[in-house]
Fold each of these.
Amino acid sequence: MIKRRNFIKYTSLGLTGLGFTACTNINLFSPKNKQKNGLDINSLEKPNLILGFVPNGDAAPLIIAQEKGFFERYGLTVTLKRSDSWEAVEKDLLEWRSDAAQLPYSFPMMAQLGQKKAPLISLMNLNLNGSAITLTQKAWEAGIRPSVDYFNFTDFEGGMRNYLRNRSKLPIFALDSNFSMDAYLTRYWLSAMGIMPDSEVELVEFPASQMGYKLQAGLIDAYSVSAPWNQQSVLNKTGFVTHISRDIWQGHPNKILATMDGWTRKNPTTTRALMAALIEACQYCDQPSNYAEISQILAKPNYLNLKETIIEPSLAGNYSYSSEIFDKYQKNIPDFTIFNHRDAAYLKDNDNANYPWRSHAVWLLTQMIRWHQLDSSDYPKEADKLLDKIYPVTFYEEVAKGLNITIPSNKMKQESTTAFIDGRSFDPSQPVAYLNQFSLRASRPQIFGFV
């Protein structure tokens, strides 16, 4: 259990440095209010919140914080607003109809650096990993198998590349957004096989809840999305999982807690209370004894509206790649989704999933430039300042100190050759050199530089 006594003395720190001009003397917790979990409700600028989410397993921290009373502990009364698309959730934030929301990691960067120029920011990660690529059963009939059947990616890629190219029409891959982390990882996966994402496949957008039906109807050939929607196709025997996202990039960020920069400036103490509640919920979600209960809660009609048997495998890590030979393709993957911390060779003891690594943002920026999704086709010289605004670390660091959570000494984390599916390492201090390594990119043969 988190030590709230430590949280008391940190919640009012750093406000001046962040530009806050109001509430700088607020003390979030008051001893005289112990009967309300130590929370002085009067110190919250806005105790009644609307939080947006899309129904998938990555929304578990928000849903569990609501159902298990973590929000209430911190004096928050929350309404969860369900939407079918990430764009709808984002629009509610941009128009201040929601206070904060679950969003794909990439959305704040695209909002600020893309055409919207909107001050959307990320406060913390809600989870790492948690997605997969599902193929139609026609691919199985053509001889393609789940990744676990192959010695390595090189063993897999030749057959998959031939399958994709020997078609009478472009294969159709569905995504829940062209700018989700699933989209960037799918592009990375395709290009690692020598497949150009923008010309050799057709990328289309559908809500996650529709993808299994589109696959079954033959309207798409594959889809990439967060759990548990891949397991739905596996258990219905309409498709099979080829790769899970952890195998494309081990420990990649997936969903975040997003809000508007102006909202945090107006509600600094509420921001910290919200983050503390969600960190507690993330810790709860990673306790094995809670998986069954979490699955029951997520299965409710107002949340995912799915059978528990579809939801729990992704939480517990008893993951099924295919129903063709069920025992053979059911694998134990305890780090399939990481909400706070699980044992994994690529994670250190203090490497909590919720920490907003700056190096994650650097990688994403290289991919947006690689596929020419921003106005600039070069890496910006002022990238550090831009990323500081989009993915501020101060909020998380202050809350983490109060909750006795160890903070990394360096925001930049190098990724070894074992982290990515193509065996390519990533040094976030050398983004231009990293970009120029890729033979497949939207602007080739242009050589990237700084602008």
Amino acid sequence: MHPLLRLLAVCAVMLSHSLPARAVTLLRDADVEYALGRLAQPILNAAGLPSGSVKVVVIRDSSLNAFVIDHQHIFIHSGLLLKMQTADELQAVLAHEAAHMANGHIAQRYANARFSNTISGLGVALAAAAAASGADPRAAGALSLGVGSSASRVFMSHTRAEESSADNSAIRYMLSAGADPQAMVDLLNIFRGQELLNQSRQDPYARTHPLTRDRLRAVQAQVTAAQAKPGKTDEADYWFARAQGKLSAFLRAPSWTLRRADASPTKDIALLRQAVAYHRQPDTAKALATMDKLLAMRPDDPYLHDLHGQILLESRRAEAAVAAYGRAAALAPRNALILGGQGRALLAAGQPKRALQVLEQARARDFSDARVLRDLATAYAKTGNTGMASLVTAERYALTGRLKDSQIHAKRAADLLPRGSAPWLRSQDVLSAAEAHASKRK
């Protein structure tokens, strides 16, 4: 089945009644996701999850939470990521969420949800798993869409038995990965006392991950019994500091970042934070001068060339941005986010044919990046292929939950594309999924 049809078929099954929605914004950044992936990989290996099958994605939200809704993504709120003090604490979160995947808790919740009319908005949440609309270019891409908050909380809530099971597994994963399991205790202590608060004042993590004194005592006992000798690595500390430093530089005031950048654990992270802060002030000259120093230190780091391209593109220096993104893509040729940036720069530089080739490569590696689909539709339109422009627009609207709009553009695409061709069949997939969703809502 076509991947879009599979995704929206889930939507059709899961959506039933409308509930009030709130915005969910994903922060997509190649550097941050690479750093989180480096920290997650030993944990995922210990959990027996296939290599490269799970991506860690950041949600822009100042509250403290992390959760899973499928077997491909671990979501973590920016507030929790910025709250943590060590790489071990982050790996404790990742280990706990990986345990929910490995222990079959997600599958069980899907089975329960099929018979529940209280689950609403879940299909849109699933569509959000990897999509991005570019709502905040300074934060390297974001996606805003509605999710039924009450329904998603019901779906994501874990039982005490699931939490106990996940804690046990997470400690084993951390030991195997060389992380200090004491960080699990430190993490739970952050939420200590939350269960005594009114639900409206609790952090989402406390609402969906029940924390009791018995649970805390059990985790402490397991950690003590483990007598762990963690294999602390400078590499884990580096990537944690880099992800946290870049994220904070985009989310907090530039003045806050510039006051603290020199306290970064390494010179390159300090320069990275300063470059982002200067860019956001905006002071393009200082941002680019800082990037020159940074690239001189790490000339073969694709994620720094990606940041360089972003700063240039957002400073309306499209030709220079093309060169910077080209260097990043040469160093990381399979990174969909970098390829998407390169395609965006080529469009801005008035090279739609080259942009089309690069954006199709990005789309092939990450079908659900809505920014790439938006730019791809523009590239098709600029090269005179209105049928493909309509098709890609239909797919983008479908992935962001705008199924009525997707249906309109899919019908237009079907009229313009050769009947029976592969693109025409894709338009039929969108129409089938949208119609299945509409019939389920009736």
Amino acid sequence: MPGIVEIVRGFLGAERTRVRPGQTIDLANLLPRPPRKIDLKAARKMMAGRSILVTGAGGTIGSELCRQIASFEPGRLTLVDNAEFALYQIDLELKEAGYGGIFKSELTDVCRAEHLRRVFDRAEPDVVLHAAAFKHVPIVEENRCAGALTNVLGAKNVFDAAMEHEAESVVFISTDKAVNPTSFMGATKRIAELYAQALDVAQNDTRFVTVRFGNVLGSTGSVAPLFTRQIERGGPVTVTHPEIIRYFMSTREAIQLVLLASSLDVAENTIVTHDGRVFVLDMGEPLKILDFAKRMIEAYGLTPGKDIEIKFTGLRPGEKLFEEIFLDTDALVKTGAEGVLLASPAMIDLPILNPRLSDVIDAALRGEQAGLDEAVHHLVPEFSAANGAAAHSPNQSNR
């Protein structure tokens, strides 16, 4: 029997769509391919009995990393996030799952270097997975200084602390939006990639790898939760453009591939390379957002255009019609691990990078957006604040 709240909602209009509020569907079933079966023996071996630190632990990516790593029986797992409620949720979940004795939650902002160093002092991590970032393209587009501080300064603080504490490996979680970026968010993530690459090449103690992938189904700010809310309200479902396409992957599969990529080259009897590696997850064929919206509506037993209207709202600031996970100039190399490829993006040597990085951080700290845009463009020439997303069209060679 429905509760009184559901009955009232039905009278107010939700009933006309025949969708029960809270009804769930398996989003992975909406993808055009089945999820891969991934062997995580190497990742388990790398993390078992070790001290692992995850930043952004309360987010969609970070929390799934924590769930899977906790099952690997690490010696210690440190959860870092500055969002109290998000950290509370994953903290409670891990305790209820019986992992309370192996992890500690640290409410810390990665932009605060001194606070972060004290967390590293306590954790003494062997492996660091950096997932903390501002990721919502339109919000970061309009709050560039804050975006640069978290995505650039925050990443620098984490990477520097990892080196100071002699961590063995740092895994940086990046995005396909860092490739040929038209959004400010994508440009900041590319700068963080450049710093991880430069640090990896400049020394032989701490291994830095970057893992780049596209949209994760069900993550905060993604289209799936938005479409769910809109369908439950009776529509309309909003799509920015009829031709917009994206790469999609389930959260679980994405994190398993991240863990697989992080363990490559660290297996027994393998020489660890320091060549600024950027791994690219093979996300299959891209999917039109319009087609995905139709599939979601149909999954609820409804008819697109009849039961639920689809409305086009126009591209948002910084948004592309398509996303690239690598450039045409990248020579992708198979790694031997299904679903993980190795890209070869351009690098900047650390002595040249450091002063330019300081320009970005200084402008962000002063709140000077014009100077910040100029400093970011200096580091990532393909990004220009004047570029319009509408100028980009799907590029078949990058699918």
